[in-house]
Write a structure and sequence with these properties.
The chain is α+β, with helices and mostly antiparallel strands and about 220 residues long. The chain contains 4 helices and 8 strands. It has one domain: Peptide deformylase (Peptide Deformylase, Alpha-Beta Complex), CATH 3.90.45. It binds ligand K1U and zinc ion. The site of zinc ion has 5 residues, from helix 3.
C-alpha cells in the first residue's frame, strides 16, 4: 500500500488546535502533533449514524465543489464517530451529509486516518475475492461481498490537493464499501432478496425495541 500526495504538510504542533486545518496533514505529522490532534478529535461529540433501512442511505452524494473549513470540521467529526463506533471507515452519507467525502483508518493502532474527498476509482484489479463485510449502518450483520483485490483511487485531500492512493487488502475493500455508500448503496444490496428482507425486518425490530427501551 502506498500513498502519494502532491500536498505540502502544513500542520505543526504550534498551530492552533482549534483550527481544523490540522487534520489535513495528520499523516505527515510527528508523534507529538499526532497525539495533540488525537486529543482534539477525542474532545468532539460523535455524530448520529443513519441505520438501514433509512431511505436517506440511498441518496447519491454530490461532488465537493471546493474544499472548505466545514469539510475539515466534518471529517474530524466523522473520524471521531468512526473511532467511537470501532469502525474502519465511514462515508458522509452515513451521517446524513450528501457530499463525496469518506474517512478510513485500517491501521492496527488507529493512528493513520485517511480523508478522501471526491474519490474516484481509476483502476481496479480484475482479480476479486469474496470477504465478510460489516457496516456501522447495519449493526451486527456480517456477510460476504465480492470486491476487487486492489484499487487505485484519485481524490482530494483536506487542502484541496489531488492525492493518489494505491490500496490492497482491507484498505481496498473498505474504500470500495465506502464509495458504494456515496452512491447510495449499502452492502446488503449485494445479498439475495431473501437475506436482505430478513436483515431489514431484523433492523426495524431492533430499532423499535431500542425506542421502547429508551422511554422506560
Ligand atoms: O461503512 C461502514 O459502515 C464502516 C465499516 C467498513 C467496513 C468494514 C468491513 C469491511 C468493509 C468495510 C465498518 O467499519 S463496520 C465495523 C466492522 O465490522 C469492522 C471493524 C474492523 C475490522 C473489520 C470490520
Ligand atoms: Zn457501511
Amino acid at each position: 500500500m502506498e500513498i502519494l500526495s502532491d500536498s505540502v504538510p502544513k500542520a505543526l504542533i504550534k498551530q492552533r488546535l482549534d483550527d481544523s486545518e490540522n487534520i489535513a496533514a495528520f499523516k505527515n505529522l510527528g508523534k507529538v502533533a499526532k497525539i495533540a490532534t488525537s486529543l482534539f478529535i477525542s474532545a468532539m461529540s460523535p455524530l448520529p449514524i443513519l441505520r438501514y433501512p433509512d431511505p436517506r442511505l440511498h441518496t447519491v452524494a454530490k461532488p465537493v465543489a471546493k474544499v472548505e473549513t466545514h469539510h475539515r470540521q466534518l471529517s474530524q467529526a466523522m473520524l471521531k464517530t468512526m473511532y467511537e463506533a470501532e469502525g474502519i471507515g465511514l462515508a458522509a452519507t452515513q451521517v446524513d451529509v450528501h457530499e463525496r467525502l469518506i474517512v478510513i483508518d485500517v491501521s492496527e493502532n488507529r493512528d493513520q486516518p485517511l480523508v478522501l474527498i471526491n474519490p474516484e476509482i481509476v483502476w481496479a484489479s480484475a482479480e476479486t475475492r469474496i470477504g465478510d463485510e460489516g457496516c456501522l449502518s447495519v449493526p451486527g450483520i456480517y456477510d460476504g461481498v465480492e470486491r476487487s483485490l486492489a484499487v487505485k483511487v484519485e481524490s482530494l485531500d483536506l487542502d484541496g490537493q489531488r492525492q493518489v492512493l494505491e490500496a490492497e487488502g482491507m484498505l481496498a475493500v473498505c474504500i470500495q464499501h465506502e464509495m458504494d455508500h456515496l452512491m447510495g448503496k449499502v452492502f446488503v444490496e449485494y445479498l439475495s432478496p431473501l437475506k436482505r428482507n430478513r436483515i431489514k425486518t431484523k433492523m426495524v425490530k431492533q430499532k423499535k425495541d431500542e425506542e421502547r427501551e429508551a422511554v422506560r
